[in-house]
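Entry 14. Structure prediction run on the chain below.
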Amino acid sequence: MEVVNSNSIAVENVLIAHQHLKDVVLHTPLQKNEYLSEKYKANIYIKREDLQYVRSFKLRGAFYKIKKIEEEARNSGVVCASAGNHAQGVAFACAHLNIKGTIFMPLTTPKQKIDQVRMFGRNNIEIILEGDTFDDSASAAKDYSAEHDMIFIHPFDDLDIIAGQGTVAVEVLNDIEEPLDYIFGGIGGGGLMAGISSYIKNISPNTKVIGVEPSGAASMKAAFENGGPTALAKIDKFCDGTAVKCVGTKTYEICSKYLDDIVLVPEGKVSTTILDLYNKHAIVAEPSGALPVSALDFYAEEIIGKSVVVVITGGNNDISRMQEIKEKSLLYEGLLYYFIVNFPQRAGALRQFLTVVLGPNDDITTFEYTKKNNKESGPALVGIEVAHPEDYQGLINRLRFNGFEFTEVNKDSQLFGLLV
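Output returned:
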């Protein structure tokens, strides 16, 4: 079955992809989550794409695309650009189909993802680190593919890629035993939600399809507001799997037709969700993988009594990032504050700070003099974790009452970026 037009896919396209992939990719579990169901007074199911062979849904689109052009790709080789998960899918396909691949990744890509790409690609792939963002890497990869006459495998703006990602929806509707009211999934370039929405809206038109983006990289939201793909001047790279400056033309056209809403989630909220998923469910989700679960809070009223599927899109989280994730969570929840404190030049000032200013449940997480050669009277950067958000005002009152001069670093974004 051919595509309906140049920028859309039909149900048949997704089903054909499903037939090609069913013996290659893992049919990931659709699990009812009792904790989330009770919390939101709904039937919440999680689609565990973090359990996929490369620990993300990206294997589906990458393998299907390369399989369709297998002979041509074997002769010329393939090139891709990715922050990690698409790269792993391409690497997996190259190794299994014995095709040579060159993979461009941003310099900011977590080491864990780079190591995974090498593992899946074996001797069939070469990794080139280029640029600070996915978009920088993609530009370099396209130039490289043209120069070496190789095939560029786009991570999202390709109808075969979109059809492959849409097989997530085929499995969801095959597995769920009740009418599906809502499905939530993350958006980077838009390939996943273009594929899911194309299938869902044609098979189950009453299902609400909700795309989720990080607040710091809301490129699909910008496209919706501006009537087409719009390059963002700057993005937050914390949710590296969805940190895309500009969505695709094809993905935008499909998503604008089928998505019911786009939810923007602060990166700190995503961090809290990562910790909750790990602590309560032993699920290791990467930031972009946890993103759709975070969105449930923003739909808490609408989903009461409903049947809801949330796609955990990936689990490639570098354990070395956990301290950063914890800090972002504490900051977002109003539990961690940084101050520059000018200690009075009197004996016992530091002891007074520890015994009188700090509350019984407050904890110092950071203490560092800003002037290494004048520790006796120089200011110090102090990080304080409180037990409850409402403890903050008492801490501020005690600082002032006891004569400590201070600057709240949290309230100065430029200062925060320099010191924390």
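DSSP finds 17 helices and 14 strands in the chain.
Filed with the rest of this week's runs.
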